[in-house]
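Quick one:
INPUT:
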């Protein structure tokens, strides 16, 4: 829907039939001039600045020729690095562009859902990993290629779509039950991991009042020596004292200084006489 809005507003009308209008994708030069707020109003949200800045970057580095050179790039690592220079593009988005737009049909964009598919249907040992590092991305990609060959990227699309509720109902009942069971298992593992992290994390830091607001003391504050803690307690007590009391103390200090100046002046006069 977002792309349809983008084409309709900034593209060129190509064809119209049966009350349907088809527009071209806007040019790079057009996207460079688009206002970020206009994209936000169209529903692009956080993606708005990515679109404008990426278009501007591509124009500065050769425009359409830069894009065409990407399609001719044979080294996937080099291709990915070039895509990662675009504002807001990460590993998964770069791989999506490669497989869907640059004829790299063997590339598999990996996210949590694709990783879970690989764990369930291909290599259960992948469940041991803690995060989706570049090494894990490559391992999942290699597994898909081993099973589906040079069209692993398109196979990934079918498997990914099968996980969506709108398509899952068309699958055999036994497969639906297996997928549901696996999702529940993954959900339980995530909850268990979260509990373990919570248990391993340090206890909440004690809170102190600062300028009328409740703030947390840092770990260094709570774990410092008793002498330092006492000093900080005095400082905290001074900061939390009523404003009137502090002003009164300041007034007294000013009076003391004034009295001292007067005494010094009298002594100087007496010594001169």
């Amino acid at each position: 829907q977002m792309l349809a809005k983008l084409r309709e507003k900034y593209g060129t009308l190509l064809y119209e039939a049966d009350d349907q209008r088809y527009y071209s994708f806007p040019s790079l030069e057009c996207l460079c001039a688009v206002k970020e707020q206009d994209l936000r109003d169209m529903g692009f949200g956080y993606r708005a600045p990515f679109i404008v800045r990426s278009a501007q970057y591509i124009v500065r580095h050769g425009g359409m020729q830069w894009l065409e050179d990407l399609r001719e790039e044979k080294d996937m690592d080099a291709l990915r690095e070039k895509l990662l220079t675009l504002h807001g593009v990460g590993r998964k988005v770069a791989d999506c562009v490669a497989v869907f737009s640059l004829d790299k049909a063997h590339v598999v964009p990996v996210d949590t859902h694709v990783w879970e598919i690989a764990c369930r249907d291909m290599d259960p040992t992948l469940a041991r990993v803690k995060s989706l590092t570049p090494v894990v991305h490559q391992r999942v990609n290699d597994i898909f290629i081993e099973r589906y060959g040079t069209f692993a990227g398109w196979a990934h699309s079918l498997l990914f779509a099968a996980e969506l509720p709108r398509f899952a109902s068309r699958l055999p009942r036994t497969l639906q039950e297996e997928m549901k069971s696996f999702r529940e298992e993954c959900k339980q593992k995530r909850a268990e991991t979260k509990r373990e992290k919570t248990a391993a994390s340090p206890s909440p830091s004690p809170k102190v009042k600062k300028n009328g607001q409740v703030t947390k003391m840092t770990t260094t504050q709570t774990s410092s020596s008793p002498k330092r803690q006492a000093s900080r307690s005095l400082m905290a007590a001074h900061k939390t004292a009523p404003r009137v009391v502090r002003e009164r103390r300041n007034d007294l200090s000013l009076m003391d200084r004034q009295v001292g100046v007067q005494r010094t002046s009298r002594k100087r006069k007496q010594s001169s006489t």
